[in-house]
Design goal:
Strand content of chain B: 5-15%
Largest interface: A-B, 25 and 34 residues
Number of strands of chain B: 12
Oligomer: heterodimer
Number of helices of chain A: 2
Number of strands of chain A: 8
Largest sheet of chain B: 5 strands, antiparallel
Radius of gyration of chain A: 24 Å
CATH topology of one domain in chain A: Immunoglobulin-like
Strand order of the largest sheet of chain A: 1-2-3-6
Structural class of chain B: alpha+beta
Order of helices and strands of chain B: HHHHHHHHHHHEEEEEEEEEEEE
Distance between the termini of chain B: 32 Å
Strand content of chain A: 35-45%
Largest sheet of chain A: 4 strands, antiparallel
CATH architecture of one domain in chain A: Sandwich
Chain lengths: 137, 342
């Protein structure tokens, strides 16, 4: 290397040595590493109370309530052929109400919701605007 | 050298080295897959590929960046330096598989252009904990692509060594982007002291190696030589081994003084190929041979033997008793200077 390149290398590494640890510190300082927090989180999860549960051949829906919020778990059991599937709460007329969220592949979906679920859940094909499945409580 | 180009200049050693690289990469991927599936059997194949190749690329990048300072500190690492380019291209392939799968998995399945999606799917640029870290990985991959695609000697010759070297020093920016990509990305979702610790140790090791080397080199640069009537006193004949050189800093540039067959010759220490330290090489078949990639120069005139065309600056030497003196004024590149007899 030429003397200029040697100096450039030195200044680059001096800069990296100062900047990277600062960035690393800032990026991890809000992360939780303690086991206490993990336990608290776990107990909070287990403290959730199951309110209602219902299933058919396509989905299983469970609603929960804890001290802070309401939540809903939607388990999609079999693949659906529709290009888009969006879950909504059923309103008192048993028609499409408040939006819950999108469902894609088979799996477990968890959503926080503002109010308790009273009437059920409906999954719609948002493009064709057709009903995929409906579960009433 | 620059006479002609072949896609890959393989020789027996390079083939062995490349086999080691490929086997190492395959072993790592298999081990990663087995361990992941043992501890988390629900991991999807896409996630497995993304994580395996991502972590492999980071490990390889650390190894690549350590080779330079290690060979400055210890000559035994020079053979690895000689083959570093293939390791760099292999690392880019691993990074590309990681980036390609991630882009496909997270950005290509919608109706938005995947590249546009990388920049706009998460707009929390103001937040460190929710920063759109994929953007950092995208830019790092872009730099690594530029480096891998210009790694061939054809580009080195046509871009000029100076521009090529500057371009390839972007690897340090890529490294910083990769570190931040990992810390602001995967570690935010799956907090693990172990993985954070491993990456931190990697960074500390690299930074220490580079800084130790830089300060060692700066110390050599700062050494001042005694002047006598415009000539600088460098050393005695016995200080230099036969067919080897001793390096001195003359007028802010490194000069290598070679001793061979009763002669002494001085040339600029920087190889025209990739800036390798010629003074750390030795004389093979009458030619000074660069320890990095084997480029050769004649000690008497600093020219590569025909038909090659590289040439470096030469310096006048004189001998008073057994003490060697050098004229600090460099001659034109390739100027023939009569060797100093002893």
């Amino acid at each position: 290397m030429t003397s200029g390149q040697r100096k450039t290398h030195k200044y680059i590494w001096l800069t990296l040595t100062i900047c990277i640890p600062i960035c690393i510190y800032l990026s991890v300082k809000n992360l939780s590493f303690s086991s206490k927090n993990t336990l608290e989180l776990k107990s909070e999860i287990t403290a959730k109370k199951i309110l209602k549960t219902k299933q058919n051949e396509i989905v299983k829906v469970t609603t929960f309530k804890n001290s802070h919020s309401n939540s809903i778990e939607i388990i999609l059991k079999t693949p659906i052929k529709n290009a888009t599937a969006v879950a909504y709460l059923l309103n008192k007329n048993f028609t499409k109400g408040e939006l819950i969220g999108q469902i894609t592949t088979v799996g477990i979906y968890n959503f926080n919701i503002e109010n308790e679920i009273e009437f059920g859940v409906v999954i719609y094909d948002a493009l064709k605007e057709t009903l995929i499945t409906k579960l009433t409580f | 050298m620059s006479l002609g180009y072949r896609l890959v200049l393989w020789n027996k050693h390079k083939k062995t080295y490349d086999k080691i690289i490929v086997s190492g990469m395959l072993i790592y991927i298999v081990l990663f897959a087995v361990i992941t599936l043992l501890f988390n059997s629900e991991t999807s194949i896409e996630t497995l590929i993304i994580r395996a190749f991502g972590s492999l690329a980071i490990i390889m990048l650390h190894i690549i960046l350590a080779i330079g300072p290690l060979s400055r500190l210890n000559n035994h690492y020079l053979p690895i330096l000689y083959n570093r380019r293939h390791l760099g291209v292999s690392m880019f392939i691993a990074a590309f598989i990681h980036g390609g799968f991630s882009s496909f998995q997270f950005h290509a399945l919608g109706d938005t252009n995947p590249i546009y999606s990388i920049f706009t799917s998460n707009m929390e640029y103001h937040s460190l904990t929710n920063f759109p870290f994929q953007v950092l990985g995208f830019f790092a991959l872009l730099i690594l692509f530029t480096m891998a695609s210009t790694s061939h000697d054809f580009f080195l010759e046509n871009l000029t060594a100076k521009v090529w070297k500057r371009l390839h020093m972007l690897v340090y920016l890529a490294y910083a982007l990769v570190i931040l990509h990992v810390f602001l990305g995967a570690f935010q979702q799956e907090t693990s002291l172990f993985t954070i610790g491993i990456l931190s140790i990697g960074f500390i090791t690299l930074a220490s190696l580079h800084l130790i080397t830089a300060f060692k080199e700066a110390k050599i640069d700062a050494l001042s030589l005694a002047e006598k009537e415009g000539w600088l006193e460098v050393c005695t004949i016995d200080d230099i081994e036969e067919d080897r050189a001793k390096i001195f800093t003359v007028a802010n540039e490194r000069v290598a003084i070679f001793k061979y067959e009763g002669n002494l010759s001085a040339i600029h220490n920087v190889c025209k190929h990739q800036g390798g330290p010629l003074g750390e090489g030795k004389i093979i078949d009458g030619c000074i041979t660069c320890p990095w990639h084997g480029y050769q120069y004649l000690p008497g005139n600093g020219q590569s033997p025909p038909p090659f065309t590289e040439k470096v600056a030469t310096y006048e030497l004189k001998l008073l008793g057994t003490t060697i003196y050098i004229n600090p004024k460099a001659s034109e590149e390739g100027t023939a200077i009569k060797p100093c007899k002893y």
